[in-house]
Amino acid sequence: MALINYPKEALNASIRGIDMWWGTVFPSLLPFFITAELLIGFGVVRFIGVLFEPIMRPLFNVPGVGSFVWAMGMASGYPSGAKLTTRLRQEQQLTKIEAERLVSFTNASNPLFIIAAVSVGFFHNEKLGILLAICHYLGNALVGVCMRFYGKNPPESSKKKPSKLSILKAFKELHKTRIEDKRPFGKILGDAVVNSVQTLLMIGGFIIMFSVFTKLIQEFGIADIFATGLAYLLNLIGLPSELALPMFSGLFEITLGAQLISESSVTSLLPQVVVLSFILAFNGFSVQAQVASILAETDIRFAPYFFARILHGIFASILAILLFKPLYLNKEVMNWQTTPVFNQLTSNQWTDFYQWFQSIGPIITLFSIGIAIVVLFLRSINRENLF
């Protein structure tokens, strides 16, 4: 019914979702997904896990391989953390509880989106991106520390002594993992490309669906009804009610919410930063649906991840309040007094890079999908020849 009543709006929303997916999301995530698959297949992730076990286990109560997922999640953005956690769980490198701990703090927004798209693209201020990034990633680390107490470790793990750094042991594990994987290099590379493209196609479907859904609930006035209740809650904690509708939109789709927050009539920047930090940490229901779909391939439960998103939103918002003056206001005064030309140049560089990336994104997307189709076609021919 909604699609029939608002066909033009639904079409524009779906086009917006497609542009976002094939121009930014697909080309930015594909290299990380393929690289991660190759590193897992070659045993490099097991090697990293042995090296970082003495750090990750006491700090986050997860194996050392969690350091790889954490780093890749921050660099590439959501839902990479969920994808890699699921992959390691399938490889039996994580227990169920460890995987639920790990996925709770390894899904983060990538720096390009925070600084280029949000700070420069929407707010035209790259200094704001530094503040948002620090609040986002530091809040995620605090979530990881809190989630280390989630669940119970298996009895046998409590008897183990904390492992020490051993490069020799790490190389032995790398060699052992590579020997156990009987696939030739060509098969590993083909699997990496096909699996990555299939996952990104699923992600694209969710992005388009939630883009249309968010637009339709706005057209029907449902968003305004819920925003009224949200405005009351914002007033209770001292935030302007004008941010209610942008925040509600951001709870579904981050990019739209961030854009609406930047266009709001609020004169003070701090409330905008607080709300923006929360929706970046919450991930939005669009990303959460992607994560739920990825986790469904294993026995990893979605509830701990959802709880962690709320916790991350609270931490990031509090950090935004505490760090706004030292990391933004003080820096703003100092930089405008000393190097305004350099700051303007930096902003242009971020904008130019982001626009260039979006321009070549569709080419990368179509080329990658074409490669995946060729690989699947060749494999289907080989199967037919076998029979």
UniProtKB/TrEMBL annotation:
Domain Nucleoside transporter/FeoB GTPase Gate per the UniProt entry, residue ranges: 24-121, 200-296
UniProt KW keywords: Membrane, Transmembrane, Transmembrane helix
Entries under InterPro entries matching the protein: Gate_dom, Spore_IM_YlbJ
Residue intervals passing through the bilayer: 21-48, 60-81, 102-123, 129-151, 188-210, 273-295, 302-324, 356-378
Protein name: Sporulation integral membrane protein YlbJ
Organism annotation: Aquibacillus salsiterrae
